[in-house]
Amino acid sequence: MSRPRTVIVGAGIVGLATAYFLARAGRDVLVLDREEIGDGASCGNAGLLSIGHYPLTRPGVSWRGLRWMLDRDAPLFIRPRPDADLISWLWTFHRHCNRRWLDGCMRELCAMGFPTLRLFEEIIAAEGIHCDYRRDGWLDVVMDPANLPHAEAEAGSLVPHGYSYRMLTGDELRARSACFTPEVAGAAWYTDSAHCHPGDFMLGLGAACARRGVEIRTSVDVAGLERDRHGRVAGVHSARGETFEGSEVVIAAGVWSGDLMRDMGLDIPMQGARGYHLQYEGIPELPFTGCVLHETFVAVTPMRDQLRLAGTLEIQPLGRPWMRNRLQKLPGGARRYIKGIDQGRVVAEWAGYRPCTSDGMPVIGAVPGSPGLYVGTGHAMMGMTLGPVTARVLADLVLGATPPMALPLADPARYSAARVPGPAVAASA
Predict the structure, then answer these.
(1) Is the pTM of this model over 0.70?
(2) CATH number at residue 346
(3) Is pLDDT at 429 greater than 60 in this prediction?
(4) What pLDDT does residue 264 have?
(5) 3-state secondary structure at position 166
(6) For residues 206 and 200, what is the distance between their CA atoms, to the nearest angstrom?
(7) Residue 420: inside a domain, yes or no?
(8) In 10 A of CB 40, how many CB atoms?
């Protein structure tokens, strides 16, 4: 190889953005993925770039999930099964649903927020990507007036981290967008965030990578990693027996990252939580920005002249058929909030997996005991939002530079067989 080549497994937001930053620094980069760009969760998500978003591990969430567990129509559905990995994941998740762990997570997640939007804006401007990016916040839209204090308390908890919000009455919402029904009581407006068309952004990013010399190969099922005689990672091999050499390897394969990592001594407790979306055209009036409907957990995002409804968390074995009843919960959960849903025409539907770790934090950094190996996965519903800043950290590590921030709670070392217990893994029951 004439110059160092980095092999990246995964062409989602983390993988492509890492490739982009490395190529800009003069690295030779090869990206491998089993799917085409546009098929994965980086394109199928709600498009809300909701910085400062809470992790899944919040106080009380595990008990609520237990009540929902057998309800096929609940926002979170977990298919019960005698699976040791699932049982261990659920128990660890429960142990991390406490205030002390949440406070630590929020310090890191909030620190990533403003830098990731700056990187989005830098890439969009430099590469001329047209993805309907708008930095106009997002709304936590509340139907029941009794829930407004809770919505305001959640928004207010971000203020110490440098974020801002506004409370809007139902009348103020309807003055901005006539699409909100008379029953809507109000909303918390998270004014710092943004939204975009994620598929258009990803296609634009893929094109930008190609222009900068990144080789992108799809329909490649990476089966394992290669090492040289000194134990350093030296590339990957595919299920068809192909070998792709590299001086460094970055694993950014979403929920499929765990299998590749396990052979390297990193056992990431991760479950794939499937989400769905429906894309509509012809809805008479769209909200002025993206929304999450407080009582039903449905995300509603305007994308040019279309509207995307997205949401649900469904944990069951990978590859099972879609649960059509859950797909139809999306319009069912939006009708009372947004007028004209039934006047629209569905032009696309999608389902895909979000990689969810048992402690609610992503896994970002160098893999202990495996020189040349890096990982970026486990972002759950924050993958699109935190993709660029995760990629910046990974690219800096590959280049031997100091990353823009320290992320001890996201350190892969917490899942290493040789980990040293410390504050990064501490969590009270």
Answers:
(1) yes
(2) 3.50.50.60
(3) no
(4) 81
(5) strand
(6) 10
(7) no
(8) 24
